[in-house]
Design a protein that fits this description.
The protein has 13 helices and 8 strands. Strand 7, helix 13 and strand 8 form a beta-alpha-beta unit. Belongs to the peptidase S28 family.
């Protein structure tokens, strides 16, 4: 799996030119959900890499997901798509999701215009693209189903990969869904389970203790104490307790938008990881905090029988010093900052599945999923021990330097795809694999 020095140098400098396809805004002219209908199209961006391609090789379509497609370039350069392309003489494409990056159907974003932002329309984009695209400079017809198209997606895009293969089996040859939520829920407190198990226990126990005490104040409807508690964080303007609770949870993350990197953004590769979560916990558990900070631990002890709120001062100080400046002077209770409950506002908080993957329990490998699970060579599944949220999608130029569990995951994906490609004919059933990750 090791690459030559020439190959490494070339991949390191590789850049991609954006191309577009005229994509229908509305793929479902008879569905009343999208009325009034439109026959218009929009320019959907894509990028491709034909470095390893030989005619007859497979096409790997990386589903861009909820971000600018340019942020996915590493998957063509050194990540999972590059790994599979090199192993199978394939060609890789990144397709930018509608309404992200520069793939906007409209110049504005009214409620009616956003009606076309659905998984149903997005999955139809994938199928239309595979059946109609012509790549500049590639002297071969690559459209599906005459060419084998294999999808890859992680997280939301993993769910869209699963839907694409299921809904359009006549188009797609196979798909790899990594950390893919395949169940939609309104509330998802299980998001925090991996952090409870695997996060630094002095940090997590401090936060649990503080939140338990705050919950008791809410249960007792102690409005004076609640207001005092919020003021310690500089968040007394958040009159709705839901806004306040979500705001002080931001450093941990959660199943919502959040303004800093969190547990979910941890990664095995130093190129893609973030230390924000560790910095947060280090601040919460700082044993050398100044007296003015540590005294805050006792500021609410009269509500808890004299018991201190361990590390409350550190926690509140972190929120004031790190989160509140993100508002850049905007009112705390505005949607430009941390308010969401005022119906006259639109939510506008800026953002960026194993035992340690926070989305595990909405995926194929959920502990709540029905049994037995079906497994075969054409429909395999794989849990990556010791990993996080779709960590298999990332690669580095020196594959031999990857952690052993990531190397083995990549080798397994190569073996699986090669088994698929050995099929003598394009069968009506499709090949599919769920990749998930967990911590022993």
């Amino acid at each position: 799996m090791a690459k030559s020095a020439i190959s490494i140098s070339r991949r390191e400098a590789l850049a991609y030119k954006a191309h577009t396809i005229d994509q229908p805004i509305d793929h479902f002219p008879n569905d009343p959900m999208y009325a009034p209908h439109t026959n218009a199209t929009f320019k959907q961006r894509y990028w491709f890499d034909a470095t390893y391609y030989k005619p007859g090789g497979p096409i790997y379509l990386y589903i861009g997901g909820e971000t600018n497609g340019q942020y996915r370039f590493s998957n063509l350069q050194t990540g999972i798509i590059q790994i599979l392309m090199e192993a199978t003489n394939g060609l890789g494409i990144i397709l930018e999701n509608r309404y992200y990056g520069e793939s906007f159907p409209f110049n504005t974003s009214t409620t009616d215009q956003l009606a076309y932002l659905t998984n149903q329309q997005t999955v139809a984009d994938n199928a239309y693209f595979a059946q109609h695209v012509s790549l500049p400079g590639v002297n071969a017809s690559i459209t599906a189903p005459n060419t084998k198209w294999i999808l890859y997606g992680g997280s939301l895009a993993g769910g869209q990969t699963a839907l694409s293969v299921k809904i359009y089996p006549e188009v797609f040859f196979g798909g790899i869904a990594s950390s893919a939520p395949i169940k939609a829920v309104v509330g998802y407190p299980e998001w925090y389970n991996p952090i409870q198990r695997l996060g630094p226990q002095d940090c997590i126990s401090s936060i649990n203790g503080i939140i338990d005490k705050f919950d008791a104040l809410i249960s007792a409807n102690n409005t004076q104490a609640i207001k005092q508690f919020k003021s310690l964080f500089g968040l007394e303007a958040l009159t709705d307790n839901r806004d306040f609770a979500m705001t002080i949870a931001f450093p941990l993350g959660g199943p919502m938008d959040y303004p800093t990197n969190t547990w979910q953004e941890l990664n095995w590769s130093p190129l893609y990881t973030s230390n924000d979560f560790w910095n947060f916990c280090s601040n919460v558990t700082n044993i050398d905090a100044p007296k003015a900070v540590t005294e805050i631990d006792y500021s609410l002890s009269n509500y808890t029988g004299g018991e201190p709120w361990t590390n409350l001062g550190n926690y509140a100080t972190y929120v004031k010093n790190v989160l509140i400046p993100i508002c850049d002077g905007a009112p705390i209770d505005s949607t430009s900052c941390f308010g969401t409950q005022n119906e006259t506002y639109y939510a506008d908080v800026t953002n960026g599945a194993g035992h340690n993957d926070v989305w595990l329990d909405l995926t194929y490998h959920s502990q709540y999923a029905p049994s037995p699970r079906i497994y075969s060579d054409l429909h395999p599944e794989f849990l990556i021990s010791g990993a996080g949220h779709h960590w298999d999608s990332y690669g580095i130029l020196n594959i031999s330097a990857e952690p052993q569990f990531i190397q083995q995951a990549h080798l397994w994906e190569i073996r699986t795809v090669k088994k698929w490609l050995k099929a003598e004919k394009f069968q009506t059933f499709r090949r599919f694999v769920y990749i998930n990750i967990f911590e022993d």
